[in-house]
Structure formats: structure tokens, C-alpha cells
């Protein structure tokens, strides 16, 4: 788009496209909710409103007047929606949809004056169309029945008033929570109380309260809408001095339809004008400048730098902890040691908050990746002339930006394979008594500290016999060797099996799955495959949520130490050597009736210096649906670790994903569990 | 970030005191001269990132024996090579004079290089630099004459080419 345009145009287009992307996503959520008959989430409407507002300001700044004017119109409509002046309806959504589509086409014409002028008619038509839609949802005045001071009602902004009205209509309980706060720290206190209330409902408004209070204190009242009855809400608010007063009890069931419209506007409307805080009420430029955008674009490298700084702080903290331990050991310094420990603990807490805040910033939803995939599917579907539906669930699941970036190619690869090879042509599907339209679904969800992304198709499934033949041809397995179902399927991850011949034609899979596996393994993830002939295939990718700072288990193996990322540790056991059994040369442990394959870290790495412990520890590792027990000699501690890449001449250290400094300048190697588990299982296949 | 050690400043002073020797018009190269098994070796100073005292080295498994392991430089994890082993000599017992020279090759790769000791920074005219003694000199790229002494100049690129398995 606008490649020929100048730099400013390109900049505008790229930013505007980002805004449109947001709009489309929010709009999709909104129509889902409308479809499900649910209440229009005010946050969604607000987000859309902000996006339209940003677009207007952006287009204005770059002097693209038609875009700015249309955005202004959209902003008006959305403002009406968020204030309850306009009712949410299917035609309204269709109108917004069309407007967003028009924006997209206008962006394509940026830098092309005549085309822009030609679009004017379309803008005109849309602008005219909205007038019919904007039928006001006339409010009924239910405020008379509320046990609420008139001063409070007067202080509400139009938006707050609308939310109150909406809450009443939904039959929610409305309560006024009043509490005193120390003036010095009232912001924190207020944030804490609001946070607690938000977990249980919606905070409609926060107002200074005139109630009695000590001189050093200030009182606030929070107007809250909740599904909880008075007693339940009061029980959940654990805040000193807070009182809960019911303004109106909830109704057993939400009011079905709003009460009859009343001709006159309620009295409070007349008085609100000065308290109005809505950004679209035509008030000064200053305000609109402030709210051009509520997001900041940041170079990911800057976040990396920030992360590294936090990482160094974490290391320093570890060093301080060691010093404190030494102070506390000696009786003459024990007292100062314990004082020091208190300070250290507070520092520790703040550092943890900082850490998670920085991590949070790096997290992005999978939505953008999924939208890319969905565009490719639409295109391929046309090119290949196949009937395929793509279903996406869990697009809001969040992952570290870097992992999301690295995930695009493997995911695209898997989906493309499914579309290209797994889903049969319509005629073939008909003959197999399947729906003519094939389905590919992508599900993303969080499981503990991992995210699972599963791609499922209802195509022909993997032809195990062909896969096996191909592996034998390549000399990857010996003819006649016994393989379990799973072991056979795992052959698709062998390198070279992917050439587009026999397997591809008959089973439709295997193009570069070895690359997919190794890419994911580099991120500390794994890929699992399941397939039923004639029914379809499911490929699940399991990835850690972040790579930046992780909790690790520090273990001792002979005279060495290693770090094991805790997010893959299922449990740790201390076992008697006699409990370790041997079958076909492999060590096994009976873990509650299931055989657990064991690997000794010292054998793995050829470590011989130092003695083994008399009673070894078994660390049960789970990655995806694979389980392996690692045998180590000691469990030393659990620590936050910043995994750093190992720099130097030797790359590809199999089984080692990096190293970490725990603060004693003596680096500890971090085990690459995906690789270790994979090697252990591969060796089993080879055995 | 603290300065690595005082070693650099000492060396800079040493280099300054010799400034008068080469003719001013001629191109001069600065080389960090180190001692290995009694003989002088040198690395171009532009490839030297810093010089640090020997600190705990964590061995890494399944690598060539000249890769001693990794050290932590303010949280950065860097492999350390033993220059003795890299030159095909026997390794030595640790001494106080030993240093780790952090070398960065032109392609950006980094490694710590363990040497018996750091001597000085040499400023030598291009004319004093010639071909190495042996045609197949391994990591030595050139030989320079310094007074009566021959100093072997190590090629950082080749120095950092080490196989994965030894």
C-alpha cells in the first residue's frame, strides 16, 4: 500500500492501518457479543471510540481531510453508543463495518488525489446512512428510587450516568462504598480499593466524600455495580474503614426490556453540563491532543535493554542475599543481618513487581498472528479452489512478543500443509460422507506457564503405511522394526521425509515438519501430532509464555551445578537406588503405576569428576504430553534466573539452552529440556 | 558497569612511553602483546574488548578440549579458550599472572582467551610486520619484529574457529 507515496504518507498509512487492525478486532468481539445476546461490553465500545478518535486526530495531523471527516462521524456514532444515546443493533454494526472497510480502501488511495476525490460519494452515502440508525435509546428515569444523594447524582458525568442506568436495567446491585484514606498515600489506597471492587463488579464513579474523617485523611465514595448482594460484597472488601451501603438491591432476573421511554429528559441531565468529561464534546483542542492515543509504540530492542537491566538487578539481588546469609551466620553481625534481611525482602517484592511489569509489556495477544494466518487461508482457499472454513479460538491468549514473532512461520507452515494436503477436494469428501466444506481450527490457550496452540483439521489424516515406507526408503528406520502408533506418527519429524513425493501425495503431510520441530525447540517448545486416518490430524505446539526471566531449580550433578526451568518440572522425588529398574538397558522408575523413562545428567554430558549421591533425585519433566525423569544428585535451591545465550566460538551446544549468573560470578548452565526429552525419547526409538 | 581492571590503563601508559620510537609518517599498528609459554603473541588492539582477571570458569560438556568453559562478565556469558591448547601446547597450572583477554573477531563473535600473562601494548610500523615463519601457521597470521624479538600476531577470526566436539 502506498509504496510510491512519500515517507510521511507511508508513516501515516502504517499507523492508520494499525488503528484499523484494532478496530476490526474490537468490532469482531462486539458482534460476537451481540450475536450471543450479551451486553455490549463498555470497554469494547470505549476502545472502539478511542481508536476512531486516534484515527481522526492522526488523519487531521497529516491533513487527510476526507479520512478525518469520516473518522469524526464514526467517533460521534461511537460516542452516542457509549453514552447510551444510540442503541447497539445489527444495522449499526454493519454501518461501522462498512465505514472501517471504507477507511481501508481510502488508505490504499493515499497519495492519489483523484481516487480520494472519487471516494467522496461513498463517504457522503455512509454519512447520510447513519442518521437513520442513530435513533436515540430514550432513557427512563429510575434514579428517583435510588437511595443516593442528589449531589452524587449531579456529579456523575454523562458516561457514568449511562453506566449507572445500564447497570440498573441489567438488574445489578448498586452500592456506595465509602472509605477514609491517608492523604499521603491515598492514590495507592484508592487504587487498591478500586482494584478489589473491580474484581467483583464495575466501578461506576469515584467521588470525594464529605463524611467525617481525621485531619490527615480524605474520604472517597465509590459507586459500584455488582452481581453480588450487599453482604457478599461487604465480605469481599477487606479494606480498613470501608463501609458498604446499598443504593439499590439487585433484581432476581435482569429487567427484560427497558421501561417505557419518557418524554422529558431527567432533571439531572440539565445540571451535568459543567461536569462533562467526554472528550468529544467539542471542548478545547488541548484535551483532544492529550488523548490522541493511549498506546506507545516501542522498539522491542528497547524492551530487551530494559529486561537486561532488570536481569542485572535480579543478579545483584541474589548477591545481596548471599551477603545477608553471611552476616546472619556470625553472632556479632546477626542483628544487622536480620535488619538487612527485612530491607532485602521489601526490595525483593518491588523487584518482582518491576519484573512482572516489564514482562507484561512484552506480552502481545496472538490475534495479529492469527489474522495473518486467516488472510493466507482466504487467499490459498481461492487459489486451490478448496472449501475450507477456518475457526479461531483464543486469539486473546498472550505470549512474549519474541516468541510470537518466531511462531509465525511454523504456524503458517502447519496451516498451509493442512489446507494444501490434508483437506480433501469436495468430491472426495462427499464420497467419504463428510461435509463438503472442510474445517481447520486453531485453538490457543494457556496451560500453566505454557501456551498451547493446536491446529486441527478434519481432512484425510496421516497415512502411516506411506510414512513408514518413506522412512525405510530413506534408511531412517530398519525394515520390519516394531513401532508404536505414536512412534510411527513421529516419523514426520524426521529430516528429509518431507520431499514432495510419495508421502506428500498419499498422506498429505511432512513438508518440513523437522524444521517446525527444531524452530520450536529453539524456543523451548515442543510439537505433538495426533492423527486418525480419514478423520483428521491435530498438531499441538506447546511454548513457554516468556523466555526472559524464569524460575529455575538449581540442581547438583556430581561436582557441577545446572539450572532447570521450573515451568517444565512436574515434581521432584528422592528415590532409593533400588527403586530404579532396568528394562532393555533403559532405566525406569515406577511412578504411581506408570513407567517413567529416566536419564542421568552425568551420563548425558559425560561428567565423571565428583561422586554420585547415595540417594539420587528424580526430576519429572513434562513438555507437551511427554514425560521424562532426569536423575541428579542434589536439589540446591529455587531461583529467578535470567537465561543468557552463550557467546563464543562453539554454537549448537546440544542440551544446553544458555547459562545464568546467580550472583556469585560462577555461571550455571541451563538445561535445554525440549532437546533432552527429545533425545531421550529418540534413543528409546533407536533401542 | 565497573571498569574491568586497572590493566588497560597501565598498558596505555606503557604504550605512551614508547611513542617516540616509530617514524611519524608511517602507519602504525597497535598490538596487545601477551605471553604464552614464555613466547610473545599479539592480538590487534581493535579486536580486544577488555582484559579481566581469571574468574570461575564453568566447564561446558561435549566441546573441544581447548574450550575451557564459560565465564560471566557482568551477566554476559562468554566462552573461554585456552590459548596454550589452541596453539597445541600443554596447559599450565593456574598462576597469578594469568589473564583472560576478551577478543572480538571482525564478524562480531566473542571469546575469552586465557593467556599466561599480559605484557604490553606494542606500537609497530607496518614495515615491521611480515609473513609468519611457517606457511601452515594455524592461528598465527603474521610475524612482527620488535627489537630483537619476534612476536607472533594471532588472527582473531581463526582463533575463534573451534570445532564443537573434541
Précis, in short:
The complex is a heterodimer of chains A (687) and B (166). Chain A is α+β, with helices and mostly antiparallel strands and 687 residues long.
Write a structural description.
The complex is a heterodimer of chains A (about 675) and B (about 170). Chain A is of the alpha+beta class. In chain A, the strands form five sheets. A six-stranded mixed β-sheet of chain A has the order 14-18-19-17-16-15. A five-stranded mixed β-sheet of chain A has the order 6-8-9-11-10, with helices on one face. Chain A is globular, with a radius of gyration of 31 Å. With about 170 residues, chain B is mainly beta. The chains are: A alpha+beta (about 675), B mainly beta (about 170). The interface of A and B includes residues 647, 655 and 666 of A.
Name the assembly state.
heterodimer
Number of strands of chain A: 23
How is the largest sheet of chain B built, in terms of strand order? Answer: 8-1-2-11-10-9
H/E element sequence of chain B: HEEEEEHEEEEEEH
Largest sheet of chain B: 6 strands, mixed
SSE blueprint and pairings:
The complex is a heterodimer of chains A (687) and B (166).
Chain A: H1 7-35, H2 42-61, H3 65-82, H4 90-108, H5 113-118, H6 120-133, H7 150-155, H8 158-169, E1 173-182, H9 186-198, E2 201-209, E3 217-226, H10 230-236, E4 243-248, H11 267-271, H12 285-290, H13 300-329, H14 334-362, E5 363-365, H15 367-384, E6 388-393, E7 398-400, H16 401-422, H17 426-431, E8 438-447, E9 450-457, H18 464-473, H19 485-489, H20 502-506, H21 513-522, E10 526-532, E11 536-544, E12 549-557, E13 560-565, E14 569-574, E15 580-583, E16 586-591, E17 594-600, H22 601-605, E18 617-623, E19 626-632, E20 634-642, E21 646-647, E22 656-660, E23 668-671, H23 673-686
Parallel strand pairs in A: 6-8, 13-23, 17-19
Antiparallel strand pairs in A: 1-3, 1-4, 2-3, 5-7, 8-9, 9-11, 10-11, 12-13, 12-20, 14-18, 15-16, 16-17, 18-19, 22-23
Chain B: H1 7-17, E1 28-36, E2 39-44, E3 48-53, E4 67-73, E5 76-82, H2 83-86, E6 99-104, E7 110-115, E8 117-125, E9 129-130, E10 140-146, E11 149-154, H3 156-159
Parallel strand pairs in B: 2-11, 5-7
Antiparallel strand pairs in B: 1-2, 1-8, 3-6, 4-5, 6-7, 9-10, 10-11
